[in-house]
UniProtKB/TrEMBL annotation:
Pfam families: Acetyltransf_6, Aminotran_1_2. Residues 41-388 form the Aminotransferase class I/classII large domain. Residues 629-762 form the BioF2-like acetyltransferase domain. It comes from the Bacteria. This is Class-I/II aminotransferase. Keywords: Aminotransferase, Transferase. InterPro entries: Acyl_CoA_acyltransferase, Aminotransferase_I/II_large, AON_synthase_class-II, BioF2-like_GNAT_dom, PyrdxlP-dep_Trfase, PyrdxlP-dep_Trfase_major, PyrdxlP-dep_Trfase_small. Gene3D superfamilies: 3.40.630.30, Aspartate Aminotransferase, domain 1, Type I PLP-dependent aspartate aminotransferase-like (Major domain). Its cofactor is pyridoxal 5'-phosphate.
Length: 802
């Protein structure tokens, strides 16, 4: 959570620093159209006051009259006393919805008051992936009360039906939490199918946030949800009295009086929070009267005409519109966040205030310009906006080195975006040439080993072994596709070299171990639950330097951009959901900023551990060189138990021994959740056994014939690398088996005069005791679909996977 918060803070700060966000108006008077920002007059396309009622004189008069009668506040909990105006406002809002309602000072606070009252401990909650963050926040907090919470992909009714059917077997009620009109892409919930589910599934209930639907749609402006269906006895609708209603607070429409009163009596925000401010109540009464008059339909029709006009203009200019054409919320897709910064800045220069929509509101490659149409806008305003977008859109792409094809690729999965064929666009890579191969055998051995073969297990021979081991296996997760790239400059000198694998991975690979343990329970029924195809720099097995990049080259950034453009296309053809660039040093700020500018999210990787400058004459010499604390640990945990073990160093072990090693490895894999991956194939172990560069350290209890533990290590001229271990857990605690294995690895590396020892990921506490330095690495991730991240976040604090 901390890393996510830091990332959000960084994105918002960058937007502010680039002059596209966190503005304050400088107007002494506001007419609904024009705002003044930094001395510039801008047409405001960022308002959610769709009907323009915030400037209606009747609302102003209502607020002023209320202040004159009652002051600016009535400071008393509503449990004890409500201001006179509450009775009139609630009565009017009830007429709008023809149902019981309760008012809250904000929709967000209202969710936290209503949800804990209406949802019981033996109920289940299913959230739509894109339901508003305020609903998610309130729902997740219900987990502390034992309520089961899960998530479904956005508007995926088939998945919803399956989960409702499954959860109905165990829970009293199954609540689906959704928006009526979603705030980013302006798309609708599929109300016809939801209505059918309310009829056909006895335990199915709906909690709908229709904050963006009120006012501009429906009888008396009651919103999208209740325009498409009548209030169902198994439904609660939340809506906003801000936005189109133009007053303040929220309204919760509840199907019966008894439940409504229970919420009023027990909801925390209604008991402990302060009431609406007096002017808000006065303005709300005036707004409600407008909605209850025939005038509302004239306003709705006028807004619909402007919405349609704007959409037609956008289509005429062939702009990539992602939003629903029937709402006042518009979204033009851009792709990378830096393109968004560029275009928003340009539109401000054109005199149009629009919003950038970026991560976490949308996936990191789905940045866009979001704007709204209100009754304040004239057709001339809309024409100015669309002409400005049409003019600056290609220029922003060009200036940032991107193309329209990036947008097409980014938004193919979005429902309202009409998929388009990529346009052949001539590109220039400043004379760089790129070599692509699908096997290491097609790349010169000496060149590869010179560029990448000196660190980790990614030398030419090791990759030959990997290719052989991860092909023609029965399990799909153990069949990897390999992709090798070398980029050369104008005179043929390599500037960049790297490789990727396409593999089926667990979406919780880097999730907290507690979450992975929960998810694994769901994999008892479906082995491939919550898995995705990923395109990974390196492999799931290797660590170290997966990319050679000459950052001293004047045009290294262009070479790296050429790689990314090529890999993005590969990601599409491979149908990979996740793109993962890995094992970079945290202090390489140039690379960090470069990848971030391309829409990658930095993620911390498990620490790796290395003993460098590893030259000593004997084991005692090694121990004498470490600190007293580490010396004490090695003696107590390893040397004092060494007499209980026999140790063998095996090269080219038999098939029988490989079977033993594999069973020991499986013991460890079953308990390893820090890096949660699929079980490796036995073929890998068998192929290692055929190579002299691999050796197996066997650790036996004296007097036994079967190893208690093994370490599989790779030998090279530059490094002794510990890759895999296997253990009999009967001896882990009683005989300190794991420290003994580490000790034998260190001793063996000393015997081989290895200049460096790599001890791999995880188990940091143990490895540091053997004088290993902790190397912090980061990766950079892009996801075409953020569903898995959302799902895993619902598991925080316990629960189970559905």
């Amino acid at each position: 959570m901390k890393n996510v918060l830091e990332l959000i803070n960084e994105i918002v700060t960058n937007g502010k620093n680039r002059g596209v966000g966190q503005f304050t108006t400088e107007d002494e008077f506001y007419d609904g159209r024009i705002i003044t920002v930094e001395g510039n007059k801008l047409i405001n396309f960022g308002s959610c006051s769709y009907l323009g009622l915030e400037l209606d004189q009747r609302l102003k008069d209502g607020a002023i009259e209320a202040i004159n009668k009652y002051g600016v506040q009535f400071s008393c909990s509503r449990t004890y006393m409500s201001c006179t105006l509450y009775g009139e406002l609630e009565s009017l809002v009830r007429k709008i919805f023809d149902a019981p309602v309760i008012l809250s000072t904000s929709v967000s606070l209202g969710h936290h008051a209503v949800i804990p009252v209406v949802i019981g401990e033996n109920d289940a909650i299913i959230m739509d992936q894109q339901v508003h963050a305020s609903v998610q926040d309130a729902a997740i907090k219900m987990k502390a009360k034992g309520v089961f919470v899960t998530i479904v992909r956005h508007n995926d009714m088939d998945e919803l039906r399956k989960k409702v059917t499954e959860l109905s077997r165990s829970y009293n009620k199954v609540w689906y939490m959704m928006d009526g009109v979603y705030s980013m892409y302006g798309d609708f919930a599929p109300m016809e199918q939801i209505t059918e589910m309310l009829k056909s599934h006895k335990k199915f209930h709906v909690y709908a946030d229709d904050a963006h639907g009120l006012g501009w749609m429906g009888q008396h402006g009651r919103g999208y949800v209740l325009n498409r269906m009548s209030l169902h006895p198994k439904m609660i609708v939340a809506t906003s009295l801000n936005k189109a209603f133009a007053a303040g607070g929220g309204a919760f429409v509840i199907p019966d009086e008894e439940l409504c009163q229970k919420v009023r009596n027990c909801g925390g925000a209604f008991i402990f929070s302060g009431p609406h401010q007096i002017p808000v109540l006065g303005a709300g009464i005036a707004s409600a009267k407008i909605l209850l008059s025939d005038e509302i339909y004239e306003k709705q029709a006028a807004l619909a005409e402007k919405i349609n006009y704007c959409h037609e203009l956008l289509m005429a200019h062939n702009l990539p519109v992602v939003s629903n054409p029937n709402t006042p919320i518009f979204f033009v897709g851009l792709g990378l966040v830096r393109v968004g910064y560029n275009l928003v800045k340009r539109m401000l220069g054109e005199g149009c205030f629009v919003n950038i929509s970026a991560f976490p509101a949308v996936p990191e490659t789905c940045t866009g310009v979001r704007f709204t149409i209100t009754l304040h806008h004239t057709k001339e305003d809309i024409e100015k906006l669309v002409k400005g977008l049409a003019y600056h859109f290609p220029k922003a792409l060009e200036e940032e080195g991107r193309t329209i094809n990036d947008v097409y690729r980014a938004f193919r999965r979005v429902a309202n975006f009409k998929e388009k064929e990529e346009i052949p666009i001539p590109t220039s890579a400043s004379g760089f040439s790129i070599q692509y191969e699908n096997s290491i055998s097609k790349i010169d051995r000496n060149l590869w080993d010179k560029l990448l073969g000196t660190e980790g297990i990614i030398d030419h021979e090791s990759l030959e072994l990997m290719e052989k081991s991860f092909s023609q296996n029965f399990e799909p997760e153990n069949n990897w596709n390999f992709h090798y790239y070398i980029i050369r400059d104008q005179i043929g000198i390599p500037v960049l070299a790297t490789f990727f694998t396409t593999a089926l991975t667990k979406d919780d690979m880097l999730a907290p171990p507690e979450s992975s343990k929960i998810i694994e329970s769901g994999r008892q029924k479906n082995k491939y639950f919550l898995t995705s195809k990923s395109l990974i720099m390196g492999t799931l097995l290797t660590e170290g330097k997966h990319m050679y990049l000459n950052q001293n080259h004047n045009e290294w950034q262009k070479a790296l951009m050429l790689l990314l453009d090529t890999v993005w296309k590969l990601q599409d053809t491979q149908k990979a959901v996740v793109l993962n660039l890995r094992d970079f040093y945290k202090n390489n700020t140039d690379l960090y900023n470069f990848f971030k500018d391309q829409g990658f999210i930095p993620v911390p990787l498990p620490d790796t551990h290395v003993i460098e400058n590893f030259n000593w004459e004997s084991a005692d010499d090694f121990i004498d060189r470490v600190s007293s604390e580490k010396r004490y640990y090695i003696k107590k945990k390893a040397q004092n138990f060494e007499s209980l073990y026999d140790v063998n160093i095996i090269t080219n072990p038999s098939d029988i021994k490989i079977d033993e090693y594999y069973e020991l490895y499986k013991n460890v894999a079953a308990k390893s959740f820090v890096l949660n991956t699929f079980l490796l194939p036995k073929k890998l172990f068998q192929n290692m056994a055929k190579k002299n560069s691999w050796e197996f350290i066997e650790v036996f209890m004296k007097g036994t014939n079967h190893p208690a533990g093994i370490a599989i290590c790779h030998k090279s001229a530059t490094e002794y690398c510990f890759l895999l271990t296997g253990m009999n857990y009967e001896f882990v605690d009683s005989h300190n088996l794991y420290p003994q294995i580490l000790w034998q690895i260190v001793k063996r590396a000393g015997e081989l005069k290895a200049p460096k020892v790599s001890l791999g990921f995880t188990a940091s506490q143990n490895k540091r005791k053997f004088n290993a330095s902790v190397i912090e690495k980061i990766g950079f991730v892009q996801m075409k679909d953020s569903f898995s991240v959302s799902f895993i976040s619902t598991l925080a604090g316990g629960g189970k996977a559905a």
